[in-house]
């Protein structure tokens, strides 16, 4: 027995569907992480690595445990996980006497070879490894979005409810929606 190495034909991803599907899932997660926080595309490798880190610590129904636990035999420590793209402060390695002891950055992942965090510093454009990082729980990176302007004539709620009107919950929700609609009309 043992492990047998097999290769697939060039430009034939359908021959290795399982692995290709896993890659697709990781890339989709990475893309969502970047878009959600409005981070630049060149940080995509960190986003995909973080997606893999998160996925390995999530419960898998097929194996009835986390992949991390299956590989190491230890439960993952979720208390040390940060929110990708969140604002953080990383302690400087060699600060001068009168300089600040930490530098503002953006959390972009975990180091593979040590228990350190990866922090992107927008002012220098570099990613550093830092063990001592303080996360800002209340604030994230402000993403620039376009806001849509609603016209006064736009109908926000439907006027008629046709399905399940006999249910008490539906009647309660209908009343709440009618009250909200009246409040919006008053404004």
UniProtKB/TrEMBL annotation:
Pfam families per the UniProt record, alphabetical: SH3_retrovirus (PF25597)
GO annotation, biological process: DNA integration; DNA recombination
Record GO terms (molecular function): DNA-directed DNA polymerase activity; endonuclease activity; hydrolase activity; metal ion binding; nucleic acid binding; RNA-directed DNA polymerase activity
Transit peptide found in the keyword field: no
Leader sequence segment: none
UniProt source species: Stichopus japonicus
Organism taxonomic ancestry: Eukaryota, Metazoa, Echinodermata, Eleutherozoa, Echinozoa
Origin: domain of life: Eukaryota
Cited Gene3D superfamilies: Ribonuclease H-like superfamily/Ribonuclease H
Identification of the protein by name: Integrase catalytic domain-containing protein
Domain called Integrase catalytic: residue spans: 1-84
Keywords (A to Z) from UniProt: DNA integration, DNA recombination, DNA-directed DNA polymerase, Endonuclease, Hydrolase, Magnesium, Metal-binding, Nuclease, Nucleotidyltransferase, RNA-directed DNA polymerase, Transferase
